[in-house]
């Protein structure tokens, strides 16, 4: 019988405070990069405005992305292994209330940089969506075996990029990103807790 070994992280497991600190530091760095790009660049920030219809569109897109992720998790073993590795590294040390920050910090800072700044800096066209989405995917690389997760994050980046282009409102990808992070992280935590109880 072949014994299956769990993939050990290439970086050591983090504590709750290390994960929260890393999320906060990453958000601050991304915000600084976005601000410097706007200051030195010759382009305008993708605008965002409050609109109830587009808020709901963002929520709907977040639910769709989460559902697609669930299908990929179920039917693609390489993605499942990669996602479990990433989620265990990031989510396992966090308490349920911490998931609020897991939605807000990346949702705001990453969307401001990738869809708010990089997308218009590259021309707000199909090439800009693809390049900014690939950069977004690489941001989610946490080890040399994580390419399936990077590919998935790049696909999500394309969906988020086109949502910004089509609506002209950064609110849509921000809300979609936050909702996706909240739902998927909550479901993963609940699944882990149910495994412990059974």
From TrEMBL:
Q: From its record, what is one biological process in GO terms?
A: CAAX-box protein maturation
| InterPro entries documented for this protein | Rce1/LyrA-like_dom
What are the entry keywords? Answer: Hydrolase, Membrane, Metalloprotease, Protease, Transmembrane, Transmembrane helix
TM segments?
20-40, 55-73, 146-164
Domain (CAAX prenyl protease 2/Lysostaphin resistance protein A-like) spans 95-183
Q: Write down a Pfam family by its short name.
A: Rce1-like
User: In the record, what terms sit under GO molecular function?
Assistant: endopeptidase activity; metallopeptidase activity
The name this protein goes by in its record:
CPBP family intramembrane metalloprotease
What is the protein's species of origin?
A: Komarekiella delphini-convector SJRDD-AB1
* Classification of source organism: Bacteria, Bacillati, Cyanobacteriota, Cyanophyceae, Nostocales
